[in-house]
Amino acid sequence: GARAGEDALQRACVDLRERIAATGREGHARFVRRLRELFAAFVVESQTRAAGTIPGLAAYLPLREQTVGLHVEFELGERVVGIELTAAERGCAARVELARLASALVGWANDIYTHEKEIRAGETHNLVFVLAQAEGLSLAGAVARAVAMHDAALGRFMALVEELRVGGSAGL
Questions:
Q1: Rounded to an integer, what distance in angstroms lies between the CA atom of residue 27 and that of residue 88?
Q2: Euclidean distance between CA atoms 46 and 69, whole angstroms
Q3: Cβ neighbours of 20 (radius 10 Å)
Q4: Residue 130 and residue 67: Cα distance in Å, rounded?
Q5: How far is CA 137 from CA 7, 26, 33, 146, 161, in A?
Q6: Is 134 helix (H, G, I), strand (E, B) or coil?
Q7: Rounded to two decimals, what is the model's pTM?
Q8: Residues 35-75: tens digit of each pLDDT
Q9: DSSP track, 85-129
Q10: Is residue 171 helix, strand or coil?
């Protein structure tokens, strides 16, 4: 029930709400589902952080995919730009993999570049720390392993983009 006021943030939020509502029930439901996934991941991350523990690798990877927030941003982008994907396009394995890889790449790059600051702050949710604990690596070894994971994911992302470019993007 909020109304646009003088505040720029308030106007932007109302505008966004109206654009999302205009996409219809299905678009709105997808956006809400992605927001719920994001906030649920934030809760898990917060609980682990409060306990002072470093999550295991198997728990961390899907959690990081959510906490980076790209899935919400993809939904927002579709709403704002007016992109309408069919069910087949939305479920296309290549599209799903590209979204997951993009999330991993952004999250892992952030973790690699911020690990020094985060270790000083006592942060526990960082790929470098997770790898150090999970694989018994030194900090330098964990950074190298994180970089290798990032680079492998980037290689897969670029190969998938090329496959789609050459083979056409049917279903994407």
A1: 15
A2: 15
A3: 19
A4: 15
A5: 49, 45, 37, 11, 33
A6: helix
A7: 0.84
A8: 999 999 999 999 999 999 999 999 999 999 999 999 999 98
A9: --HHHHH-HHHHHHHHHHHHHHHHHHHHHHHHHHHHHT----HHH
A10: coil
